[in-house]
Amino acid sequence: MNTRRTSGFTLIEIMITLALGLLISGAIIQVMVSNSVADRLNRAIASAQESGRFIVNRLRSDVIMAGRYDLLDGNLNRAVDVVEEAAFVQNHPIPLPGDFAVRPVLGAIEGPNTGDSDVLVISLQTDRDCRGYTLGYNNNDQFYVVNEYFLDGSQLKCRGFDGRYLRGQKPAAGHNGHAAFTLLDDVESFQVLYGVANPLIAGDDSARPVQYIPADQLLGAIAANGQVVAVRIGVLVKGDGQVKISQSASFVLLNEDPISPGSDHIYKQFEVTIALRNMKNFVRSVSL
Fold first, then answer.
1. CA 84/CA 259 separation, integer angstroms
2. CA-to-CA distance for 170 and 81, rounded, in angstroms?
3. What are the entry keywords (predicted)?
4. Contact assessment for residue 150 and residue 189, using Cβ atoms and an 8 Å cutoff
């Protein structure tokens, strides 16, 4: 009588198979988790880099024109004494609190406490403010604009004013209530220093900065024959998404104390020095 042997897995073989399966599954899960963490990290770094490059380029394109006033521009609106206005703009490329009777608090401000963000204000002749508003002028008109840049919470914002309104020469128009527009979210800190030229200190008429100072020292520097010819800006931006970092990094923006924003996000520091080409030419021409 023939008997058939039934083949199969022993209990030991099954246990070994299950153990190997668990090891392989664990390895796959670990790879997936690592890939997910790496992906979040890469996206956070990329977003911080992109945000930083954007805001640096945006601020550079605006600030570089501070102090510009072209009396020969055919599109310049001449409803006021433009010669007197040109002198005011060129002598106040960076307005300070008290320069405008209508808004006496408007001007470049150093953060009141250590680590607080600064306020940057610039004057220039252009065809629209930093929000894109023509402020009641015709589309091709050039006029006196004052732009303010400041940090509101974690949002870097700007708002523009008609300089003639600020000086009490005309009513405000087309300003949307002077509402501020957001330029960039997730900004941790916004710091500004001002490069001051002084031929008495430099010993020449090169209009090169001899010192970089905060806004609360500008009044004294200008009274001592100085003039702002450059602006140095530092920005600390936060990347998208939450990423756990093993050790919290510290950042030093310009002349400020170190900042330690935390270990739950990626932060990137950006700094740029912007030469005010119109002010350099103005300072050289005055020295001739």
1. 44
2. 13
3. Membrane, Transmembrane, Transmembrane helix
4. no
Q: Cβ distance 237 to 186 under 8 Å?
A: yes
Q: Show pLDDT as tens, one digit a residue, over the chain (288 residues).
A: 455 555 666 777 777 777 777 777 777 766 665 555 566 667 777 888 899 999 999 999 999 999 999 999 999 999 999 999 999 999 999 999 999 999 999 999 999 887 899 999 999 999 999 999 999 999 899 999 999 999 999 999 999 999 999 999 999 999 888 999 999 999 999 999 999 999 888 877 788 999 999 999 999 999 999 999 999 999 999 887 766 676 677 889 998 888 888 777 888 999 999 999 999 888 877 654
Which residue type sits at 65?
M
Residue with tokens 């050039």: 142
Rounded Cα–Cα distance for residues 85 and 92 (Å):
10
